[in-house]
Design goal:
It comes from Thiovibrio frasassiensis. This is Cupin domain-containing protein. InterPro entries: RmlC-like_jellyroll, RmlC_Cupin_sf, UGlyAH_Cupin_dom. It is a single chain. The protein is mostly beta strands and about 120 residues long. The protein contains one helix and nine strands. About 5% of the residues lie in helices and about 65% in strands. Strands 1, 2, 3, 4, 5, 6, 7, 8 and 9 form a nine-stranded antiparallel sheet that branches. The longest helix is centred in the middle third of the chain and has 7 residues. The N terminus is likely disordered.
C-alpha cells in the first residue's frame, strides 16, 4: 500500500499516428485519484516545424536542484542539457531532443546535471 507521500506510477507506450510512439508515464495523484501523465516524445522534423518550436521562448538554467509546481500545463523541447525530474516514486531522465509535457498540478523535483536550454510553452 502506498504511503500518503508516495505516488504510484504506471508506464506505457502509446501509439501516436502518424508520428510513431511515445513513452507515457502516469503519476497517480492519490489526493484526487486522477492520473497525471508526463509524456516524453522524440519529434519528427515535420512535427517540430508544425509546432513552430523556434518561435517559443527559451529558458536556460545552470546545474542546480529545485522543487517545481506546475500551475499550468507546460510543453518543452530540450535543446541542451541533462535533467532528472522526480515526482513521487517516478524518476525521468530528460535529454536533448526530448519533447516533454508536464501536466497542470504536478509537483516535482528538478535536478539539472548540465546547463539546460529549452523552448517552452505554458497552456
Amino acid at each position: 500500500m502506498a504511503s500518503p507521500t508516495s505516488s504510484p506510477v504506471v508506464f506505457g507506450i502509446d501509439k501516436v499516428a502518424p508520428h510513431g510512439y511515445q513513452l507515457t508515464t502516469r503519476i497517480l495523484n492519490l489526493d484526487q485519484g486522477i492520473p497525471m501523465p508526463i509524456t516524453v516524445e522524440k519529434l519528427s522534423p515535420k512535427k517540430r516545424e508544425t509546432l513552430r518550436l523556434d518561435e517559443w521562448p527559451i529558458w536556460q538554467c545552470e546545474p542546480s536542484t529545485f522543487p517545481w509546481h506546475y500551475d499550468q500545463e507546460e510543453s518543452c523541447y530540450i535543446l541542451e542539457g541533462e535533467i532528472t525530474v522526480t515526482a513521487g516514486e517516478q524518476t525521468m531522465q530528460i535529454s536533448p531532443g526530448d519533447y516533454v509535457t508536464f501536466p497542470k498540478g504536478l509537483d516535482c523535483q528538478w535536478q539539472v546535471h548540465s546547463a539546460v536550454r529549452k523552448h517552452y510553452l505554458f497552456r
